[in-house]
Amino acid sequence: MITRVAAPSAEWLSLRRALWPDCPEDEHLSEMAEFAADPTRFAQFLARSPAGEAIGLAEVAVRTDYVNGTESSPVAFLEGLYVAPPHRNEGVARGLVAEVENWARERGLRELASDTQLDNLQSQAVHGALGFTETERVVYFRKAVQPR
């Protein structure tokens, strides 16, 4: 069963921590509050096991800025997708992404975009299995500007 999350919860936080373990808890909580406060721009979905345990998470946002590889604007952007390891390969991610697609479709959006790190081969494989098409690869650069 998949449900939309309307307010921050311990279950949502727990799955976010598993997906982004290096993110400080206060940052998770701040983002969760921001997402919950703007349901026209953000949506969060939890997948539950038959016993009711939260086992998967999808977060989606409407992005109005340029999104690499897309042809329209605005687009739905899959900000995060996570399934607890014991429940992988059971169709949980597919169900979560289907809910995200429905949410996007209801808003008249024509594209769902996502990204992952170049070295995250597992995520790349999951995206491909879920019907995403790779559009481009990017290496970002940074250079500090030294004060005079």
Short description:
The protein has 148 residues and is of the alpha+beta class.
| Inertia-based shape | globular
Q: Write the CATH homologous superfamily.
A: Gcn5-related N-acetyltransferase (GNAT)
Strand count, sense and barrel status of the largest sheet are: 5 strands, mixed
Largest beta sheet: what is the strand line-up? 1-2-3-4-5
Strand content: 15-25%
Number of domains: 1
Briefly note the structural class of the backbone. Answer: alpha+beta
* CATH fold annotation: Aminopeptidase
Q: Helix-strand pattern, N to C?
A: EHHEEEHEH
Helix content: 25-40%
What's the arrangement of secondary structure elements?
Blueprint: E1 2-4, H1 10-19, H2 25-37, E2 42-48, E3 54-63, E4 75-83, H3 92-106, E5 112-113, H4 121-129
Q: Could you describe the 3D structure shown?
A:
It is a single chain. The protein is α+β, with helices and mostly antiparallel strands. The protein contains 4 helices and 5 strands. Strands 1-2-3-4-5 form a 5-stranded mixed β-sheet, with helices on both faces. The radius of gyration is 16 Å and the shape is globular. The model has no long low-confidence stretch (mean pLDDT 95).
